[in-house]
Amino acid sequence: MKKLKGTEVFDGIPHAFPETFEGMRFYLQRSRRSFATHSLFYENSGKHLLYTSLTTEVHLLPHACFRRINTPFLSVEYVREGTLFVRQRGEAYSLEAGELFLMQPGMEGEFLVGASSFCKKESFSIFGSLLPALLEKSGLAKLNVIFGINHSPVHRIFGHLNALEGCDSPEALLENTRLTFELLTYLAAPMQAEQAPRTLLELKSHLEESLDKEHTVQEMAQLYGCTPTHLTRLFRRHFHTTPYRLLIECRMRAAAKLLRREPELPIKALIERIGYRDALNFSTEFKKHFGVSPREYRRYLHNINGF
Asked: Domains in the chain and their CATH numbers?
């Protein structure tokens, strides 16, 4: 993260706000290679305490820019690759991979991709009647940017929230609230970044790419060349979970993705792809994870897409 001496990098952006929605004003200049959005939940009655309404993944190209004002929600803009210029409260910064911009509710904020750069980022749009007090008490309301943190929890929460798309059950909303609170709590007191050993990252990638295999902790430890106890300690330090739980989380995300992308795929074929041998065990874990059964999840998707 680099704090800029001035805000001149933003001088070429028009100051008008041509787009409006429910009192909010926006300026947007599109320049992107890819864009994916996940609609999770939204209500305007103000009854719900805290939730993420929308998550977005976007690959921005040179000259992409966005400005907003008078919005009631917090946007967490997490830079995964590239560079992003951001401005808020009259201060401007250049953010790199692993750093975050907090676009505060009610304030004017903007971001910009430079003429010779790009940016891949993930965004969280967070609402709720509890949000202003939570931001104030946690100290997040005073921050424009966050840097030097371990990004793994942010990316993990992003993946779990995306998997809730299409689920409108009370259990899914409760899980959304829990994950959103976990994100804000982590950002208020983040763990400092600690680079995982290359061989440990390779083991993690191997697990993610071979979910159809059984992968006991003993086998994982043997692959890494240590004891199961030491491997669990390493996973807790670098990934904030155990080898077993990380494997379960990867399998649940993969299952939700398959249910969305291949709606006709039989459950038996699906569980074989992600390493389960028993449909009941899979269904139990899926419901524990997302609050609904795989069949209910598929039915929600069916109704939403109008099949």
From this structure: 2-188 (2.60.120.10), 198-305 (1.10.10.60)
Q: Select from 61, 191, 185 the least CA-distant residue to 126.
A: 185
Total-model pTM: 0.64
Residues 77-111: tens digit of each pLDDT: 999 889 999 999 999 999 998 899 999 999 999 99
pLDDT, one tens digit per residue, over 20-52 is 777 788 888 888 888 899 998 876 666 788 999
